[in-house]
Amino acid sequence: MAQFMVEFDLPTPFPPNFVVKIPMQKMAIDELMDDGRISSYALSIDRGRFWAVINAENDFGVLDVINQFPLIDQMPYVITELMFNHAGAIHVPGFSLN
User: Fold this and answer.
1) pLDDT tens for residues 55-77?
2) Helices and strands, number each (H, E), in the chain
3) Is residue 24 very low, low, confident or very high in pLDDT (cuts 50, 70, 90)?
4) pTM, 2 dp
5) Residue 43 and residue 35 in contact, taking contact as beta carbons nearer than 8 Å
6) 7: β partners
7) Is the distance from CB of 10 to CB of 22 less than 8 angstroms?
8) Beta strands 2-9 and 38-43, pairing class
9) Which residues contact 57 (CB under 8 A, 6 or more apart)?
């Protein structure tokens, strides 16, 4: 399994037909994360760009994932295969009864 960074350009400002689909987009991404097909995602502070790290065998697998996005028809994208993706884990110290 390979990892791919997909960079999406978002319309600015968001048109009304985009805004009404945002809850469905969030639900689709949450489901794909639960399935392990998306490992992370991020949105720029100006809401003009969105990134997702997708786990897939190849570019066709990435397309299969992003075609499940309700907003895909309004988000031009670029797919880049990653050599690696190091995501820092949150460290929680062990609990002590002392």
Assistant:
1) 999 999 999 999 999 999 999 99
2) 3, 4
3) very high
4) 0.85
5) no
6) 51, 78
7) no
8) unpaired
9) 1, 2
